[in-house]
Amino acid sequence: MKRRRVIYEGKAKIIYEGTEPGTVIQYFKDDATAGNGAKKDTIEGKGVLNNRISEYLMTQLAGIGVPTHFVRRLNMREQLIKEVEIIPLEVVVRNVAAGSMSKRLGIEEGTALPRSIIEYYYKNDGLNDPWVSEEHITAFGWASPQDLDDMVNLTIRVNDFLSGLFLGAGIKLVDFKLEFGRLWENDFMRIVLADEISPDNCRLWDTVTNEKLDKDRFRRDLGGVVEAYSEVARRLGIMPENIQGENKGPVLVK
Description:
The protein is α+β, with helices and mostly antiparallel strands.
């Protein structure tokens, strides 16, 4: 396959120049990292699963009117996406106390929150993606007040929809991270959902057993990462059964 020019390489994805005007190609790697890159490994098949799961969720969200950067899946590891100006923020939605929130505030993991909480983190690996407020965001020009309003409104819609979607599959959406970008069309700009939505950036627990079906299996050395991601895909109807590795990649159920 002809290799395209690399625009950016992150911990879990590579962005290549696109095949169509105004597009880029997002390639999902098998690399897994935790602790801002302090812990690293390669988990065969993870990128394939994340590609398919993110494709499915982005498509479902587009179906209810949430604007996204997703265009179409190209192959097992790549998808064509619209080229956007990434806003340097991670928008985290918390429905249940877990992870850093439990450590930071001393709340027992698994405690249902009185309401969903939205947090912001500044995307900067060198600073370990620090938690920031709306005041920081607008003061330093990372996003305008209107940008923030658009991002929050979209985030609430995404949380409501995905919570119901996962619940129907027997999965609790504990928390998740979103990223947004500015999509320019001539002189018009709009905020769209970018990056990915997968078990890499969502905490997903079985509704009955609270078994972890997400990246915490890697973070906490629980094992069975691909099996857990495969189970998420199976429950969403993307795969007819658990399939691991790349030789027998996930099969879309029509």
